[in-house]
């Protein structure tokens, strides 16, 4: 019984390690370091961030360092939230708060964050329109929304992807004003919008 428990624990750690390696791979994000992504936004000292689908804290930790304001790391995976808490502790960051939940039902009050970032997560939501409404609701007036996504490719038939034109139209439909569009690679796009 003890041997089986240790085997299950070992497999869980291996899965977590593989997931972390995948999520932290810069190639997956168009080779854009988090600091470069954050420099595209006029981050002010004390800005409040929401990292949607925070994963390993790839953007959470740099955002916490850049603004000094509260950074909410939202993810559905408790293991990922523990990783973020560990990283925040390692970097002596007291301004990181983890939230277990999903984008379809954000556990924050309206007009509570200056900047929301959704990096490689919106293609996984059930209703893009509803998720964008939720995101817009928690962003303060004149606040920013940064969307990083993988471009839809012809050969991606079995992987859910959203073309940048479609994402931009959905964002506009939900009341965002797209102010900057970037394509760092053929596979990745970044849309910076304002509420």
Automatic annotation (TrEMBL):
UniProt-listed PANTHER family: 2-METHOXY-6-POLYPRENYL-1,4-BENZOQUINOL METHYLASE, MITOCHONDRIAL, METHYLTRANSFERASE
A Gene Ontology molecular function term of the record: methyltransferase activity
Listed Pfam families: Methyltransf_31 (PF13847)
Key words of the record: Methyltransferase, Transferase
GO terms for biological process, alphabetical: methylation
Stretches assigned to the Methyltransferase domain: 44-158
InterPro entries assigned: Methyltranfer_dom, SAM-dependent_MTases_sf
Record-given protein name: Methyltransferase domain-containing protein
Chain segments carrying region Disordered: 1-29
Species classification: Bacteria, Bacillati, Bacillota, Bacilli, Bacillales
